[in-house]
């Protein structure tokens, strides 16, 4: 159940302006983001691009997140707010916003991330120059800490702010299978593509890997070599929960891997998926989700026989070696080391 607070667009004037410049809908999902949500929403409201629709979905926060949104609504009554009476999860909450969205393009914004003022203008300009088979435009991202201090970049940059590595662009299905390379909060997506795949899969605990797998087969992705978003790295963020013993992310990932397997067409794509499955088997071991590791093994064996290292990890899973506490300490040390070097990269 949810309570929806909506201010309708300004009629004919809004329709006329939208015909000149495409409307962009920003869907911001929030759960206990009291500390960060004002900065996040203000970064949307401060965009230089004029045609922006902002929809906020609060997933039954227990802190003052809703109060922060209501404070902003006093000054910006065009903000649409959905207040859920229970936590529906990220995917269902986003789909609530998608049903209300009127924009040609959609941005999925977490309530702790921050957009640069020119982001929407730059991405719309880029999207409008692309062919019709492009579904996503994405960019580089800065990483910031809980105090909004810069800690690094998704892709390392040179003095001109350009990536020093080659970022996949175009037909990227194989690359999507092989590694995490798209910075999720930087994406702008075509709403019609989102609707064609039914929005996010609400049976899953997280959204991005599944969305990539279901769209990159038939649509192209475009990389825009600019830093347009700041992604906040906080404790207990989704990217850090993969190491939790009770996390549901890995079981969701297995479902997505089966979807990916069904869509593979070439030897290279199967090999890329196999490489990713081997990595997820290790994550199951570190999270002490031993039975799940063997379910990943079943899928891997449709592609190839487990290599020596994977077979060893599976043997350790069979012995139920308790490694989670030690691995979490290592992961925290590694992240601090990366921050000190200014080379922060997510591992999921």
TrEMBL record:
Protein name as annotated: Glycosyltransferase
Organism: Larkinella punicea
Domain Glycosyltransferase 2-like as annotated: residue spans: 25-185
GO MF annotation: an example: transferase activity
Pfam families: Glycos_transf_2
Presence of the UniProt keyword Cell membrane in the record: no
Listed PANTHER family: GLYCOSYLTRANSFERASE, GLYCOSYLTRANSFERASE 2-LIKE DOMAIN-CONTAINING PROTEIN
Top-level lineage group: Bacteria
Keywords: Transferase
Keyword Transferase: yes
């Amino acid at each position: 159940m949810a309570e929806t607070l909506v201010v309708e667009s300004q009629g004919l004037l809004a329709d006329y302006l939208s015909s000149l410049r495409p409307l962009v809908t920003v869907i911001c999902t929030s759960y206990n983001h009291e500390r960060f949500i004002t900065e996040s929403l203000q970064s949307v409201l401060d965009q230089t691009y004029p045609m922006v629709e902002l929809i906020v979905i609060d997933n039954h926060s227990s802190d003052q997140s809703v109060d922060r949104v209501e404070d902003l609504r006093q000054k910006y009554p065009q903000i649409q707010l959905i207040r859920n009476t229970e936590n529906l999860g990220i995917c269902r909450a986003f789909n609530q916003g998608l049903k209300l969205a009127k924009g040609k393009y959609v941005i999925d914004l977490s309530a702790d991330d921050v957009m640069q003022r020119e982001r929407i203008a730059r991405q719309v300009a880029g999207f409008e120059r692309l062919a019709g088979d492009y579904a996503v435009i994405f960019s580089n991202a800065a990483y910031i800490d809980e105090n909004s201090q810069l800690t690094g970049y998704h892709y390392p940059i040179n003095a001109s702010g350009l990536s020093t590595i080659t970022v996949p662009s175009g037909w990227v299905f194989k690359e999507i299978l092989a590694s995490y390379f798209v910075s999720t909060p930087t994406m702008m997506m075509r709403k019609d593509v989102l609707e064609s795949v039914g929005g996010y899969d609400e049976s899953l605990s997280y959204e991005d890997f599944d969305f990539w797998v279901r769209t990159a087969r038939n649509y192209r992705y475009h990389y825009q070599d600019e830093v347009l978003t700041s992604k906040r790295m906080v404790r207990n963020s989704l990217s850090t929960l993969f190491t939790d013993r009770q996390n549901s992310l890995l079981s969701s990932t297995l479902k997505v891997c089966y979807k990916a397997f069904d869509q593979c067409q070439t030897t290279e794509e199967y090999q890329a998926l196999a490489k990713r499955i081997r990595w997820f088997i290790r994550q199951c071991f570190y999270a002490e989700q031993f039975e799940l590791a063997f379910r990943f093994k079943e899928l891997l064996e449709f592609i190839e026989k487990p290599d020596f290292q994977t077979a060893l990890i599976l043997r350790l899973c069979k012995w139920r070696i308790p490694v989670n506490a030690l691995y979490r300490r290592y992961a925290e040390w590694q992240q601090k080391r990366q921050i000190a070097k200014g080379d922060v990269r997510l591992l999921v």
